Amino acid sequence: MKRVVFCDFDGTITALETFAGMLKEFAPQLSAQLMPQMYARKLTLRQGVRQILESIPSALYPEIIRYAQSKPVRPGLVELLDFLDNHHVPFILVSGGLRGMVETVLSRAGTGGESLLERVAAIYAVEVDTTGELLQVNSAFEGDTELVAKVQVMAQYPADEQIAIGDSITDLNMALRAPVVFARDRLLDYLNEYHKPYYPWNDFFDVRQQLSQMWQG
Q1: Domain ranges across the chain
Q2: What is the dihedral of CA 164, 165, 166, 171, to 10 degrees?
């Protein structure tokens, strides 16, 4: 494979932090306690997100999905996907959030409200079991610090050029590994600490424009 793009979901594809917002909505006290620790890297995402999710009653899962339905998508996603298709570059969605929420947003994320699920080459995200009283987390790519270890997912797609797009602490390991990184919001500060080069971006039109310039060269 010549090139592959790995993209975060929460706060990256969505214009708002949909998964983080859901945790604050459905587990406010535990989120208020643990999320600052995760952002400060005093508590791993694997520990903190699991603890918060597994405190939420399974009966609330339909409400969690409804919570995601109205969340806006960052502009330019369809145009970026068109651009990548023209260059035969797969778009891999890697999320530390819930797969059900990802699929709900993508199912109406097109410019005309059409589904983008089939436009994405693969989705890697957290699965939940709702058969018990509380949600139970399942992840095929659970790692040392992450419920979805994005570097493990990247290893499934060896390529001459791996590109990462993200916005926060959940994308740090992925961004440190990828040769080409598009960063915004909190991820900028984390990468500055590591002196890791990146391209700042506001929407997916910025990503498309920069990739177009790079690949023309």
Answers
A1: 3-216
A2: -10
Sign of the alpha-carbon dihedral angle for 66, 9, 206, 111: negative
CA distance 137 to 173: 21
**CATH classification number, 3-216, choose in 3.40.50.150, 3.30.1440.10, 2.160.20.10, 3.40.50.1000:** 3.40.50.1000
DSSP 203: S
Q: How far apart are CA 185 and CA 190, in angstroms?
A: 10
2-14 pLDDT, tens per residue? 999 999 999 999 9
pTM of the model: 0.94
Residue-by-residue DSSP string for 56-108? SBGGGHHHHHHHHHTPPBPTTHHHHHHHHHHTT--EEEEEEEEHHHHHHHHTT
Q: Which of 10-36 are b and which e, b meaning 16 or more Cβ less than 10 Å from the residue's Cβ?
A: bbbbbeebbbbbbbbebbeebbeebbe
pLDDT band with cut points at 50, 70 and 90 for residue 16: confident
Pairwise CA distance, residues 193 & 182, whole Å: 16
Give the tens place of pLDDT for each residue, 114-140: 899 999 999 999 999 999 999 999 999
Neighbours of 184 (CB within 10 A): 21
